[in-house]
Fold this sequence. Notes:
The complex is a heterodimer.
Chain A: H1 4-11, H2 15-43, H3 46-49, E1 53-58, E2 66-67, H4 70-75, E3 80-88, E4 91-92, E5 102-105, H5 109-112, E6 117-118, H6 121-129, E7 133-137, H7 138-144, E8 151-156, E9 167-178, E10 190-193, H8 194-200, E11 207-208, E12 210-215, H9 221-231, E13 239-243, H10 244-252, H11 258-287, H12 289-297, H13 302-338, H14 350-377, H15 380-384
Parallel strand pairs in A: 5-10, 7-9
Antiparallel strand pairs in A: 1-12, 1-13, 2-11, 3-5, 3-12, 4-8, 6-9, 7-10, 8-9
Helix pairs in contact in A: 1-13, 2-11, 2-13, 11-14, 13-14
Chain B: E1 3-16, E2 19-32, E3 36-40, H1 47-54, E4 62-67, E5 70-71, H2 77-87, E6 88-91, H3 103-108, H4 118-131, H5 147-159, E7 165-169, H6 177-194, E8 197-201, H7 205-208, E9 213-218, E10 221-222, E11 228-229
Parallel strand pairs in B: 3-8, 3-9, 6-7, 7-8
Antiparallel strand pairs in B: 1-2, 1-4, 4-5, 9-10, 9-11
Amino acid sequence: MKYLHLVWAALLRRKTRTVFTLLSVVAAFLLFGMLDTVRAAFNAGDQLAGSGRLIVSSKLSIIEPLPLSQLTRIQAVSGVKEVAYANWFGGTYQDPKNFFPNLAVSANYLHVYRDRFALPAAQRKAFADTRDGAVVGAALARHYGWRLGQQVPLIGSIFPRRDGSNTWSFQIVGIFKAKNPKLKAIEQTFLFHWKYFNEGNAYTRNQVGWYIVKVADPAQSDHIAQAIDRLSQNSGHETKTETTHAFQLAFAKQIGDIGLIVGGIMAAVFFTLLLLTGNTMAQAVRERIPELAVLKTVGFSNRAVLLLVLAESELLVVVGGVLGLGLAALSLPAVNAAAGGQIVLPPVGVTTWVMGITLMLAVGLVVGALPAMRGMRLNIVDALAGR
Amino acid sequence: MTALIEIRGVAKTYVRGKQKVEVLHNVGIDIAAGDFLALMGPSGSGKTTLLNLIGGLDTPSAGSITVGGQRIDQLGSGALARWRASHVGFVFQFYNLLPMLSAQKNVELPLLLTRLSAAQRRKNASIALQLVGLADRANHKPGELSGGQQQRVAIARAIVSDPALLVCDEPTGDLDRQSADEVLSLLRQLNREHGKTIVLVTHDPKAAEFATHTLHLDKGELVEPTVTAH
């Protein structure tokens, strides 16, 4: 700690340059904080809940439907406790831009996901009793100003009605919240009866997008998944049974490999940061060669000079990085608010902080290494003579 | 008087590109404890090289240098750095103060390598600044001080860890006559009243007059007669 003022003094020697370098580090880690949170959000889901649920979907593609006739066969598999099913509807509200997840679900869907959805019993009953009833997430209701009892039309961009119209009308009978704050994103969802969808759509009949299987013993999940997939082996509707988490990842990958996209962006950002900060550090040390020579003259060892320069680069990157991640943490609620509930990003998580701090230390080490080595190898006589 | 510094058969050769340049040949001197020695000679005569060897900033290509009974030419870079920290104070022509630090913090610099507490470091630095007459400028940065004042801060830094030896390379080379005389008087005071052994490299005969002895170097060799007493 007694050397800290030396490190600060070195950083403050060229204030403007240090401030601009610091800002670039802040920007890089702000971006890292936000993008890694997006990646974490895509990787969340039942990994957090550990709920013992399996998803059965078509082996060919996630968008390939499965026959409803498989329901009873899946229910009969040993270890299966309950089976629900759902269909992606893909409707929009008033304008194609007003897009949110909307699913046609079986009557027991909310029961299978009872650890996720907080819905008052009266509203749950109203949903069960209302043919065109819909339950919506609180964030979604807030965003569009929907109230209980309101009729809401959705435009079925994939599934038109039998009468040729694209407009599906629903009555809002329930507004649910997420029981787990980490799964806040489900408050963007719009759920309605699969039966209403099945009867009303012009294209499909008695087909479901995927089954949700609640198992009695999560430890038996692998065994049960294999048994379910064996049911449809060599048929025209082979299934792939996986955990909810794996299914969600596969679903998200329809947009793209989020991890790869985030990783690619961050690699470019940090590569630029390395060049920029590395150049700044090299320049800063080059300018201070006589001062480092003075330190050695008065008795600082080669190692002490090496550590001082490394501390300087570490301090610069860590201060900038913590500010950047802190800003990301502060701005995420604002992003969520600005998105009006369309995006619900979780707070910057511990993993992101740990990864961020590790990155800061690594970047500080890499950008400081060469200048620090130069300082360490400095020949006092040559440096004092300006050679 | 006992010799504090014994230099025997010292040579120094530098390699510049493909050329070998022998800067010092077979130099031998004894410098007594408490001496104030001026090293004079034309540019390129090897004065600064010899001073650097005495101060442990460089090592000889041949010969031996013993300071206070210790062969410093045999020390590795780490041990030599530790030796410099506790045995030598340096004063340079261009002061070489750290521009971002106050006079007080500049003077404290060598004490960072000791086990002294922060309060003790502050106290010792204040005493050193008082000794050079700059106690009231402790919080000023080098850029806010005149050349003569900066050189006095550099002297305070050189003496703060109470070394027996001060090596001064053209300490008045960048100063006007009055400031130069003040700095030289201060060095003489440190020599006479505090018993510091001082080796001063200078071009200036007036500066050399402050020393008790003068040695002349030319083309890397001591010129006879070797000692001029003042």
